[in-house]
Design goal:
By secondary structure, the chain is an alpha+beta fold. The chain has two helices and five strands. It has a five-stranded mixed β-sheet with strand order 4-1-3-2-5, with helices on one face.
């Protein structure tokens, strides 16, 4: 399993980004979570196969039509938390 942390920059809060990411993650089949961060970015932790992570990455680069994605920072997720579903955190 591949574990990645994405930090999405741009006009991504207050536009339904977390909800649309959750729907896309369910469709792709990854586990993890999405949440807003205090600095205006959206953080996504995703666990899945390499092809699932690649699919989510490609989607996050564009985001939903309501958002404007300027940049997506990607790194390995080093946490040891296990995920059984994909959640929207508040």
């Amino acid at each position: 399993m591949v574990k990645k942390r994405f930090c999405v920059h741009g006009y991504v809060q207050g536009v339904g980004f977390r909800y649309f990411t959750w729907k896309q993650a369910l469709k792709i089949g990854v586990t993890g979570f999405v949440r807003n961060l205090a600095d205006g970015t959206v953080e996504v932790i995703a666990v899945g196969s390499e092809s699932q992570i690649d699919a989510l990455d490609a989607w996050l680069q564009e985001g939903p039509r309501t958002a404007i994605v300027d940049d997506v920072f990607v790194e390995d997720y080093l946490g040891d938390k296990e995920f059984t579903a994909f959640q929207v955190l508040h």
